[in-house]
Specification:
Rossmann fold; 3 domains; 941 residues; elongated; 33 helices; seven-stranded mixed β-sheet; nine-stranded mixed β-sheet
Length: 941
């Protein structure tokens, strides 16, 4: 500690007389080390000669007091401050810091001034002991980006201008000093004002005119129709225009945009360049020609276009999204990640995700938090997202913020990743322009998320058919009297001599004329742009699931790949159990052991990688595998380092990605869906730790995976691995809820598969990529079967076989003797097979239906009608309760494959509200009972 005070004694102003000032600064350091000047922080961090950080406070006080009693403790000639002056100086520095922390609470960000400003004592000079008599005294400005010394009055004016004007900045929660000082400099050195030339401001007015113009046009032409108007938040259009232009200037080549309903049509017309004629046709009920399925409402539709920027052409893709507002967030991030991968852009320099949120949804929906949590995580990083909140100050039809959140601001969730938040008055387009540039520059400088909270209002109700004044009479009285943002800005520019009233009117008429003519009104729209990174989806359109494809792999290739995967770094020591598994795989490739699931799966990935495909496997235990079977990631038992053999199959290690994801289902599955919609050449897999974990992502399954093609024409080859099987472990984790997926199946929208052997798994994986068929694949993957003595395959099964949607009885029963055919899927097959063999029955055939959708009617009919045509009884056997599993969704398929003389029965558990029992003993009794029922008991229709 003495070393510190020796340094302090040699520093200007830091003599014993100024001990009060020093102590005040130290108090500030204890409260927030990053809130003080870096030089001071360096002094205090060196306490105890750089030792412990938590130095007891009393010795510091005592040392400061000793300094105060010791004359001549400075060697510099600078006059010492009196104790009173030092106290005042400390008070000024505390006031500066208070504005940085809490100035946003007094900022003028609400266009309607709905609520009184809070009482913030920290921002009152008197709270710090400063009086009117101090206002014209000069003080050191400390770390403020201003002159070194200024009168207190000017210091306060600067602070109010920067922190309590039309922009409220929250960034002092950031712990990284470089980021914080960067923001302080950008705010304070520019007084939080954009120095915009006249032409730029005219351009802003023109964009505001466009934003207002399309809404008024639609309001008059299509009265009462829903459009989720942007009126009250028109500054979004110049904001997005600035963001795109500035992003292009900084080298961004693609923007992936996600947003909910409000303002979507406005953005499509005025930013993305959608033809007004096409939009008007949709209002008139005409179905777009490019949608072949159900289609969707116009304010859910996506779009893409190329826009000219100072840095060249920039591609903007707006994501399709359902009514579940924020669920589009991870989808956009996944799409951005796939685009980054194509460009080999590892930091997000060329791809920018932009998410536009509603205030109530941003605060209320958990996927927002989950998506933020992805932002810096390995495998999900997209280089930072610009978030824009269209803050209506109202949620749906709720008027009281106390009903929509428990926080002061709707943006508090962003603080969890220390994202800076800039609240800005939507009626001040110049302030919006400043914040937009600041936010983009921050993202580009630090590759982290940033939030713009544009505080505005909603001129109409939740939709144009709503009457909001019934529930928000005070708010809507103000709104009815409030001028539009365009009107306010036009008057401001006229008053400042930037343009005349006639020029402002000309903007309005010119925009109206273009709409009447049906012309495209977006600026800088390009056509015929060559994009070397664009994906050609045409080979995947119009394909059929049953198209023949060779998924076999020659024995030499299998052994060559296994030999490559056996090579470990020098000195790499495996865990004993893992080492035994790796040794067994060597023996399997040599033909000395039957093949297990882990071997078959690894060979499938390796072969795809060798042939030029990519593989992305994501789940909470995917590296090792929940059931200790995969071991795609190997760990050195000596030092904990990791090694991924599959990365060595190709020259680019990024071709294979395996991620143990964070404990999220909704956001991670949404991310993987977004990735798969942007990259048909990557086998994208989301794996549930257990199948029922997908419950937490049901909205992704319902609104994207199962229906995205029908609604929006979006192809997607995402694969879901859902461990499924009844092993007596209780209701949770037994069932992947097979019935839910089958209930969603229609129009060949996705595939549902229950493979029962390693070879089936191998061929299924390869088929998903080799075949030009990009539909979601839902797989009921095994648990206990991973090590089942009967659930194995041979090398020939991989080198000569293919995926079989239906598998005939493996024991070669004599067809003419068969009286009953038992149909089943998954693990129960082995229970049935074992029981029949023990009973030495030859009058029952057991047939596996490995693909439940699209249902392989031809293959099954060939067995039931032809091979087993003499059998009178067909039984569907399943482990799941009767109201679950495949029975209710698939029995009509079974009947369609049967002869008229055959009867269909059910064998399985009775209907249940729960997926499984909690007692292992009861489970085994039930299991024995359903097997006996399937093989022996009379049909239960």
């Amino acid at each position: 500690m003495n070393g510190l005070f020796q340094r302090l004694q040699q520093t200007s102003y830091l003599n014993g007389v100024n001990s009060t000032f020093i102590e005040d600064m130290y108090e500030e350091y204890l409260r927030d080390p990053n809130g003080i000047d870096p030089e001071w922080r360096g002094y205090f961090r060196a306490l105890a000669d750089g030792g412990a950080q938590d130095v007891p406070h009393s010795p510091i006080r005592e040392e400061f007091a000793r300094l105060a009693r010791t004359p001549g403790t400075t060697r510099v000639a600078t006059p010492a401050l009196t104790p009173d002056a030092a106290e005042k100086q400390g008070a000024v520095l505390r006031l500066i810091n208070a504005y940085r922390f809490r100035g946003h609470q007094l900022a003028d960000v609400d266009p309607l001034n709905l609520r009184p400003k809070p009482d913030v004592p920290d921002l009152d000079p008197a709270h710090h002991g400063l009086t009117e008599a101090d206002m014209d005294e000069e003080f050191n400005t400390g770390s403020l980006f201003a002159q070194d010394r200024m009168p207190l009055r000017r210091i306060i004016e600067l602070l109010q201008q920067v922190y309590a004007g039309p922009i409220g900045s929250e960034y002092m929660h950031i712990t990284d000093t470089d980021q914080k000082r960067w923001i302080q400099e950008r705010l304070e050195a520019n007084r939080a004002q954009a120095d915009l030339p006249a032409e730029r401001r005219k351009g802003i007015l023109e964009r505001l005119t466009a934003a207002e113009g399309i809404e008024k046009y639609l309001h008059s032409k299509y009265v009462g129709q829903k459009r989720f108007s942007l009126e009250g938040g028109e500054s979004l259009i110049p904001m997005l225009d600035d963001l795109i232009q500035d992003a292009g200037r900084q080298g961004v080549r693609e923007v992936v945009l996600g947003m909910a309903h409000r303002g979507r049509l406005n953005v499509l017309i005025n930013i993305m360049g959608k033809s007004p004629k096409d939009l008007f046709a949709e209002f008139e009920g005409k179905k777009p020609s490019e949608i072949n399925g159900s289609g969707d409402v116009k304010y859910h539709m996506g779009f893409s276009s190329d826009i000219q920027t100072p840095g060249g052409a920039l591609h903007v893709a707006m994501a399709f999204n359902p009514s579940h507002l924020e669920i589009v967030n991870p989808v956009v991030e996944g799409s951005a990640r796939a685009r980054m991968h194509r460009r080999r852009d590892h930091v997000g320099a060329e791809v920018l995700p932009v998410l536009i949120h509603g205030d109530a949804a941003f605060a209320g929906q958990g996927v927002v938090m989950e998506t933020f949590q992805l932002s810096q995580a390995r495998g999900f990083y997209t280089g930072g997202t610009v978030h824009i909140v269209i803050n209506n100050q109202i949620g749906f039809t709720t008027s009281n913020p106390l009903d929509t959140r428990s926080t002061v601001y709707c943006t508090e969730v962003a603080k969890m990743i220390q994202a800076p938040i800039f609240h800005v008055n939507g009626d001040d387009p110049d302030a919006v322009a400043f914040v937009t540039q600041l936010a983009l520059d921050y993202r580009q400088a630090f590759n982290r998320d940033v939030v713009i909270d544009m505080v505005c209002f909603r001129r109409h109700g939740h939709n144009e058919a709503d009457e909001p004044s019934a529930t928000q009479p005070v708010m809507y009285q103000k709104i009815k009297q409030h001028p539009t943002t365009r009107q306010l800005y036009a008057e401001r520019l006229e008053g400042e001599g930037v343009l005349s009233a006639d020029e402002a009117k000309d903007y309005t008429q010119a925009y109206r004329d273009k709409l009447d003519a049906g012309e495209v009104v977006a600026r800088g729209l390009l056509s015929g742009v060559r994009n070397d990174y664009a994906v050609d989806w045409s080979p995947y359109i119009g394909t059929q699931w049953h198209e023949a494809v060779d998924t076999s792999l020659p024995l030499d290739d299998l052994r060559e790949l296994q030999g490559l995967l056996e090579k470990l770094p020098e000195g790499f020591q495996l865990n004993n159990r893992v080492g035994a598994i790796m040794e067994n795989r060597r023996k399997m490739a040599a033909g000395a052991l039957p093949l297990d699931w882990g071997f078959a799966e690894t060979m499938a990935y390796a072969s795809l990688l060798r042939d030029g495909h990519k593989v992305r496997l994501v789940g909470q235990d995917s590296g090792r595998g929940t059931f200790f079977h995969r071991h795609a990631v190997l760990h050195n038992a000596k030092d904990g380092s990791s090694f991924i053999p599959l990365k060595d199959v190709t020259t680019d290690p990024n071709d294979f990605v395996v991620i143990d994801s964070l404990l999220s289902e909704e956001a991670v599955m949404g991310f993987e869906y977004g990735y798969a919609t942007a990259d048909p050449n990557t086998m994208v897999i989301w794996e549930g730790q257990f199948g029922d974990f997908a419950n937490g992502a049901q909205v992704v399954i319902d609104q994207f995976i199962s229906s995205g093609e029908s609604k929006w024409g979006r192809l997607c080859g995402l694969t879901l691995y859902l461990p499924h099987g009844y092993e007596g472990q209780g209701p949770e984790h037994s069932s992947a809820r097979l019935e839910r997926y089958l209930q969603l199946c229609a129009e060949h929208n996705m595939q549902v598969v229950v493979p029962s052997t390693p070879a089936q798994f191998f061929h299924m994986i390869r088929r998903q990529m080799i075949r030009p068929y990009r539909k979601p694949l839902v797989v009921m993957t095994p648990k206990s079967l991973l090590r089942h003595k009967l659930s194995t395959s041979s090398l020939e099964d991989l080198s000569e076989g293919q995926f079989q949607p239906v598998i005939d009885d493996p024991d070669g029963v004599t067809a003419s003797k068969v009286k009953r055919v038992v149909l089943c899927s998954g693990k129960v097959f082995y229970d049935l097979l074992d029981a029949r063999r023990k009973a030495e029955r030859d009058d029952v055939a057991i047939v596996r239906v490995e693909q439940l959708y699209p249902f392989p009617e031809d293959a099954l009919a060939g067995l039931l009608r032809d091979r087993y045509g003499k059998a009178k009884e067909v039984v569907w056997c399943q482990e799941e309760p009767k109201n679950q599993g495949a029975w209710y969704s698939s029995n009509h398929h079974f009947r369609a494959c049967m002869k008229g003389t055959q009867s269909l029965g059910y064998a399985g558990r009775t209907a249940s509200a729960s997926p499984a029992v909690g007692s292992a003993k009861v489970h085994h009794e039930q299991q024995r009972g359903l097997v006996d029922q399937a093989l022996n008991q009379p049909l239960s229709p």
